[in-house]
Amino acid sequence: MGYSERDKYGMYSSNSAGPGPALMGADTLLGENVVNEYGIELGDIKEIMLDMQTGQVAYAVLAFGGFMGMGEKLFAVPWQALHLDTANRRFLLNVDKDRLKTAPGFDKDAWPDMADMQWANSIHAFYGTDPNRPGAPTRAPGGLGTGAGDLGTDSGTSLDPRAGNQGGDTDISRIRGSNIG
After folding, report:
1. Domain boundaries along the sequence of the chain
2. Which helix (DSSP H) or strand (DSSP E) does residue 2 occupy?
3. Residue 62, CB half-sphere, CA atoms under 13 Å: how many?
4. Homologous superfamily of 26-171
């Protein structure tokens, strides 16, 4: 189920100008699929963690492995490592599935101290992200580049999935709190 199906308030309907994809309701992103650049499913978003001092999204909690919630491992993925693919209604994460298995993760009953800078630095080092830079751009279909932080050569724009709306990411980068580069 994609975010448009979890839209309780009609903010992503084709009949509404709405906020998406420039601004998205956190609740509608929970459960969103995460795939890598090859379309291989990595898991789904279980939680979105906000940095209460900056007001920015710090991490998305990704669930990977297990069956029906049993034995799954959780990973705090820096928000800037995720890219919303609005055309396919999913997140892209530039990590191979086998590499993700070695990522620093945790059990649902033993969450790490996410305010611990040593822990945060290890997470950012694993995903190749900058702990001093919040967010990342929304992505158009076509995937990611091959290296950590390499977003490829496309224009970086995403088509708004609502009918008749072609809004690009460059148009929304001035929004306060935007995660656009």
Report:
1. 26-171
2. none
3. 30
4. PRC-barrel domain (2.30.30.240)
Q: What gap in Å lies between CA 139 and CA 136, rounded to an integer?
A: 9
pLDDT (tens digit per residue) in 135-155: 544 443 443 433 333 333 333
Total H helices, total E strands in the chain: 3, 6
Reported as a pLDDT band with limits 50, 70 and 90, residue 84 is: confident
Task: Tell which residue, 6, 55, 3, has the closest CA to residue 34.
Answer: 3
Alpha-helical segments (H) within 18-133: 26-29, 97-100, 117-127
Q: Identify whether the C-beta of residue 51 lies closer than 8 Å to the C-beta of residue 44.
A: no
The pLDDT confidence band at residue 125, using thresholds 50, 70 and 90, is very high
Name the strands in the sheet holding 73-78, side by side, starting at the edge strand that comes first in the sequence.
73-78, 57-64, 41-50, 33-35, 90-93, 82-85
Predicted structure pTM score: 0.68
Q: Per-residue b/e over 131-160, b at no fewer than 16 CB within 10 Å?
A: eeebbbbbbbeebbeeeeeebbeeebbbeb
pLDDT (tens digit per residue) in 152-174: 333 334 444 444 444 444 433 33
**Band of residue 133 on the pLDDT scale cut at 50, 70, 90:** confident
